[in-house]
Amino acid sequence: MDRIARNTATTTTATTQADEALRRVTATGIGPRQPGTVYYDGDRMVRVEAVVTDPSEARRILRRRSARFAVLIRDLHAGTSRYTGAVWTGSDRVLKAVNA
Asked: For 6-41, what is each residue's pLDDT tens digit?
């Protein structure tokens, strides 16, 4: 009986480590984007309206099974809003950061 309890604890630890690794990957993909942040996304200036970090909701919004997050952005020149699942890259530039 003791052996079963030990295996369960190992499985829980492994799951927790995997969850933490996915959380870090998601945070890296989102980058500094949080509501209120203004940045250049390639050739557009956009403002972050919302960040969705629940994977099931992000998958529903983006209609992609692999989505881990979704970011609602507003194009400040065109005035249109849309969701994106694009990761933060070196070509993206923050123009106005907000405090967490």
From this structure: 444 445 566 788 889 989 999 999 999 999 999 998
Q: How many other CB atoms are there within 10 angstroms of residue 52's CB atom?
A: 21
Q: How far apart are CA 5 and CA 9, in angstroms?
A: 6
Determine how β-strand 81-84 pairs with β-strand 93-96.
unpaired
72 forms bridges with which residues in the sheet?
Answer: 50, 83
CA atoms of 36 and 19, how far apart (whole Å): 28
Task: Give 88's contacts (C-beta < 8 A, 6+ positions apart).
Answer: 28, 29, 30, 31, 32, 33
Dist. CA 37–CA 5, nearest whole Å: 47
pTM (predicted TM-score): 0.81
Closest to 44 measured CA to CA, from 99, 98, 92, 96: 92
